[in-house]
Structure formats: C-alpha cells, structure tokens
Design goal:
By secondary structure, this protein is an alpha/beta fold. The chain has nine helices and six strands; from the N terminus they run αβααβαβαβααββαα. Bound molecules: 3-methylbut-3-enyl trihydrogen diphosphate (2 copies) and magnesium ion.
C-alpha cells in the first residue's frame, strides 16, 4: 500500500503549517546562487498545496518570509519579493482550478506595493473558492503578531468594549491574524533544523511537530503524505493519560 493509501481520511488534520526551509543550502549544493533555491522552492509549494487540496485539508499555512528575513542581503530580499509577485500571478489560474482560496498573515504594509497589489487581487479573485485555504505568512513573526494583538486588545479594553474579566484564550485568539482558523494540528519543518523561528508560537501550543531532513525544493507530495501518516500514528493526549483516551473520559 502506498503511503497515501494508508492515510485515514477521518484522522487528517484540518490545519497544517509548514516552515519551508533549506532553499539556500539546496542552491549551494549545486554551486548556484541562493535565489536559484528559492525559485526551485515554488515547485514544492505547488505540490504541497495540490496534495492538501486533494486530501480535503481545510488550511495550509506556509511560512514564506519572516520579519527577520528582512535582514538578509538586499539582493536576496528583492529577488524573493519579485518571485512572490511572479508566482502569485502565474499560480492564480491553478488556485482557481483547484478551488483554493488565498489568504495571508503578517505585516502587509511592510511589503512592496506591487506585492501588496498582487496579493490583494489574487485574494479577491479566489475569495469565493470553497476548498483549501492557502495561507501565506509574509513579513510574519509570531512576536509581532502577539504584540499587535495585545495592542488591539488593550485599545478595546480602554474603549470599554472588552471587560478585563472576559479575557481568556478564546477571546485572545480572536485578536490574532489566524482568527477564524483552527490551530494547526501539525507543524512541519524541512531541512533538518529543529527550531520554530518565531512562527505561530501561540497557535502551536498543542501541535504535533514533524521535522524532515529534506530540503524544501526537494519536498514532494510523498514527503507530505509521510508527515501526515506519522501524525496519524501519534497519540494526542492534551494532558490526559493514555487510559483516559482509550476509555474516552
Ligand atoms: C527558506 O530557505 C526560505 C526563506 C527563509 C525565505 P532558506 O533561504 O532559509 O534556506 P537555508 O536555510 O539558507 O538553506
Ligand atoms: C524561517 O526560516 C523562515 C521561513 C521559512 C520563511 P529561516 O531560515 O529564516 O530561519 P532561521 O533564521 O534559520 O531560524
Ligand atoms: Mg533557512
């Protein structure tokens, strides 16, 4: 049986988040510029998006550019921004065909105008699609998101719209960029790095973490299925004991 055939549809996560890492090393292994790795990472994005859509997963969040990535050399940042524009433009047709809705999280205002425009137009065009929601984390970092949430919440408390005694994790989640989405049940990071790099810190409180040695440009549907199968074999206890889960109490 193939890995895909072993997957149990009822046990699939609703939301998968991915830290797409290893483009630079992939390029270096080939003696090419880092940008070449980013360009080849687009194929992996296409594969994983298509796989998630086919399986009926509701949300796929891809970490495409972090707040900290602004500190990379200007030529790399510029190349990544151009790649974003050209990829969104060329992929919109496929998103439509696969019934995928595009969404983004992160500090949109810090993105170049042409990126903001392309993103807005693709989001608008795909807004009535009802399949997978593809969420691009762009100029995103979790601490930035949490600070924004705290500022907005403090503002609402000050205005008298929120009572301090009503603040709980549910209410706070509603101030995050990911409001209206379930927390990711599974977080994948490629390229053999074992860290979170400021990604969805609040939302991954109980996510299953999966680390793959594969460099992002080499990541294919089969690797995605392997991560999902591994996830399905985990016991998610949420603080309870195994016995409680078995007895369902
Ligand atoms: C991930 O690949 C893509 C981005 C962070 C934009 P990297 O560019 O981080 O690749 P490595 O980690 O240097 O190999
Ligand atoms: C994390 O990768 C950000 C993205 C995948 C967009 P990095 O390659 O920037 O992370 P660090 O700096 O190695 O932790
Ligand atoms: Mg990296």
């Amino acid at each position: 049986m193939s890995v895909k055939e072993q997957l149990i549809t009822e046990k699939l996560p609703r939301h998968v988040a991915v830290i797409m890492d290893g483009n630079g090393r992939w390029a270096r292994q080939r003696g090419t510029a880092r940008v070449f790795g980013h360009k080849n990472g687009v194929k992996a994005v296409r594969e994983v998006t298509e796989a998630a859509a086919e399986l009926g997963i509701d949300y796929l969040t891809l970490y495409a550019f972090s707040t900290e990535n602004w500190n990379r050399p200007k030529n790399e940042v510029d190349a990544l921004m151009s790649l974003l524009v050209s990829t969104i433009a060329s992929e919109t047709k496929t998103l439509m065909k696969n019934n995928v809705k595009l969404f983004s999280i992160g500090c949109k205002e810090s993105l170049p105008n042409n990126v903001q425009e392309k993103l807005a137009s693709c989001m608008k065009q795909t807004s009535t699609n009802t399949g997978l929601t593809l969420v691009l984390a762009l100029s995103y970092s979790s601490r930035w998101e949490i600070i924004q949430a705290v500022k907005n919440l403090a503002g609402d408390v000050k205005k008298g719209d929120v009572d301090i005694s009503d603040i709980d994790s549910n209410l706070f989640s509603g101030y995050m960029e990911t409001r209206n989405m379930p927390d990711p049940e599974l977080l994948i990071r490629t390229s053999g790095e074992f860290r979170i790099s400021n990604f969805l810190l609040w939302q991954i409180a109980y996510s299953e973490l999966y680390f793959s040695d594969v460099l992002w440009p080499d990541f294919r549907k089969e690797h995605f299925y392997e991560a999902l199968l591994d996830f399905q074999n985990r016991e998610r206890r949420f603080g309870k004991t195994s016995d409680q889960l078995i007895l369902n109490k």
